[in-house]
Design brief:
mainly alpha
Length: about 200
């Protein structure tokens, strides 16, 4: 976030707001998807109630956290609002239909995502500290962002495979082009012990 912020805005001020907002978006995506599923199941009153609870929590948290944390309190309140609404949506979904996250492999997916976040954060920090070949904050920030994003992007599929969240059996359901690419890469992935 620091490199990207410097590239876009010229300095790193406010980078923590970007970090908090990105984390909040993760909750928002699941909140919106689960709300849409509830709408599709013919239960529009449930996501509306949950959103109302989330907005009320956001208002209370904004008033409570802003005097203590400033703009960071507003960002945290927003993220917590999304998390609460998401949790309420998921609770209602579980009451209506039985489901498991990622076919019972949710822990593996979350472990891979956590590993990617750690790898991306570490790469972003290291790049921001040490990658400065141009002597220009904007161009250095562009390269730093590309390095960190590249490492994070490469880490996720490797971690999905290593954790067993994505298996050779899952590859059979891929579209034709992706399956052909998988078949070419599979021997190398097996030698690297990435495929279970």
């Amino acid at each position: 976030a620091f490199s990207f912020n410097t590239f876009v805005f010229g300095d790193a001020e406010g980078s923590w707001i970007i970090i908090i907002s990105v984390c909040a978006v993760l909750f928002q995506v699941v909140m919106m998807t689960s709300g849409s599923i509830l709408l599709g199941l013919g239960r529009p009153e449930l996501p509306m109630r949950h959103i109302a609870a989330g907005v009320a929590a956001k208002a209370l948290l904004t008033f409570a956290l802003t005097p203590l944390l400033g703009i960071y309190g507003v960002a945290l309140a927003t993220g917590l609002c999304f998390a609460l609404t998401m949790a309420l949506n998921l609770r209602s979904l579980r009451k209506l239909i039985p489901f498991s996250f990622f076919g019972g492999r949710g822990t593996r997916f979350f472990a891979a995502a956590a590993g990617q976040a750690i790898a991306g954060a570490a790469a972003g920090w290291a790049a921001y500290q040490y990658v400065r070949p141009f002597g220009s904050s904007v161009w250095d920030a562009l390269l730093q962002t590309a390095v960190a994003a590249g490492i994070a992007a490469a880490a996720y599929p490797a971690l999905l495979l290593r954790a067993g969240a994505f298996t050779a059996e899952d590859a059979a359901a891929l579209p034709d082009r992706a399956r052909k690419l998988w078949l070419k890469a599979e021997p190398l992935l097996r030698r690297a012990r990435l495929v279970r």
